[in-house]
Design goal:
The protein has about 80 residues and is mainly alpha-helical. The protein has helices at about 10-65, 70-85. The longest helix has about 55 residues, at about 10-65. It is rod-shaped, with a radius of gyration of 38 Å. The N and C termini lie far apart (about 130 Å). The model has no long low-confidence stretch (mean pLDDT about 80).
């Protein structure tokens, strides 16, 4: 007769198996946290860059909207001095 008796694992073997599984889980967790950190850094860089570009474009737009100050002042001061005469 053939018996299906499996030998019991030694406690030392079980401990080694558990340690190897814990080591694999640690490496996976470290890799996941590392990739998450990189993604966060890239995302933050994109946000800051986009904000800087938007600010630059806003400043250009405001500069274009500003009236030319050199020509109207000369004409305005001349007109005011003529009216005073």
């Amino acid at each position: 007769m053939h018996s299906d008796h499996t030998p019991d694992a030694d406690p030392e073997q079980l401990l080694k198996l558990l340690e190897s599984q814990v080591a694999v889980a640690r490496t996976r967790r470290a890799a996941r946290e590392s990739s998450r950190g990189r993604a966060g850094t890239i995302g933050l860089s994109i946000i800051v860059g986009g904000a800087a570009i938007a600010l630059w474009m806003l400043l250009l737009l405001l500069e274009q909207m500003r009236p030319q100050q050199s020509a109207p002042r000369e004409n305005g001061s001349a007109a005011a001095s003529e009216l005073a005469r």
